[in-house]
Amino acid sequence: MSFSRLPRLLRIPLPTLIRTVQIVAVYHLFTTDIASIRPCGGFSMLPTLSHDGDWVLISPLPYRSVFRSSSSSSARGPRRGDLVVSINPMKPNETVCKRVIGIQGDIIEVEPRRGRESIWMAEEDDELGNGRVILRDVDSEGRPLRSRRKGEGQWVKIPKGHVWLQGDNISNSTDSRMYGPVPVGIITGKVLARVHPNFTWFSDPVQSV
């Protein structure tokens, strides 16, 4: 076989091939560890994000310890009100965009989605006054547990290293009400801004009272 018949890729000069590999590596490093622009669609984040798929700026840097003044784990992790991208706990090959409603140690009263049953299990620990039942943080297999109040509501204590995620459109969102508290480790970044359409920086929507 003559050199002229070799596939074109094999005839690329070595310096050009090396430069191409370097560019691809830098691009991967930047989008994975610094920032990326990706579409985020669906009905669960209405009206914050359009169901048609807004393009958003996502970065993991806000949750890196070097960018936080405090050394505590809660300071480094997601905060209440943050808009984040996470691996889907139910479909690990997909990601979801949700709002952080609670962080570790918080106790949240939640009304589950009507007509849907949560897939995560709860076990009673002991019963207190006011018709409330407080549950252990985790079961015998280490799964996070929710707390239950007799009646319509559900009480959830967020275990260490977890957050509670919900969509802004709570009537049409599959979130922690379905799959329970989410490990901080599967959160891939914070949504900093909407890039297109109508560029908008997202500020903290949670106000102290």
If you had to describe this structure to a student in words, what would you say it looks like?
The active site is at 44, 98. This protein has helices at residues 14-33, 73-76, 176-179, and strands spanning 36-40, 54-59, 83-87, 95-103, 107-110, 124-127, 132-135, 147-149, 154-157, 162-166, 182-183, 187-196, 200-201. It is of the alpha+beta class. It has one domain: Ribbon (Umud Fragment, subunit A). Strands 1, 2, 3, 4, 10, 11, 12 and 13 form an 8-stranded antiparallel sheet that branches. It has a 5-stranded antiparallel sheet with strand order 5-9-8-7-6, with no helix packed on it. The protein is elongated. The relative contact order is 0.19. Mean pLDDT is 74; it is low at 69-74, 121-142 and 145-152.
Provide the fold topology.
Layout: H1 14-33, E1 36-40, E2 54-59, H2 73-76, E3 83-87, E4 95-103, E5 107-110, E6 124-127, E7 132-135, E8 147-149, E9 154-157, E10 162-166, H3 176-179, E11 182-183, E12 187-196, E13 200-201
Antiparallel strand pairs: 1-2, 2-12, 3-4, 3-12, 4-10, 5-9, 6-7, 7-8, 8-9, 10-11, 12-13
The CATH homologous superfamily is termed Umud Fragment, subunit A
Instruction: Tell the overall outline.
Output: elongated
The CATH topology annotation reads as Umud Fragment, subunit A
Number of domains: 1
Number of helices: 3
* Radius of gyration, in angstroms, nearest whole number: 22 Å
List the uncertain runs.
69-74, 121-142, 145-152
First CA to last CA: what distance?
Answer: 78 Å
Helix content: 10-25%
Summarize model confidence as the mean pLDDT: 74
Strand-residue proportion: 25-35%
Task: Compute the number of strand runs.
Answer: 13
Main β-sheet, in a few words? 8 strands, antiparallel
The CATH class is identified as: Mainly Beta
**What structural class do the secondary elements suggest?**
alpha+beta
Proper CATH architecture: Ribbon
Identify the quaternary structure here: single chain
- What's the order of the H and E elements? HEEHEEEEEEEEHEEE
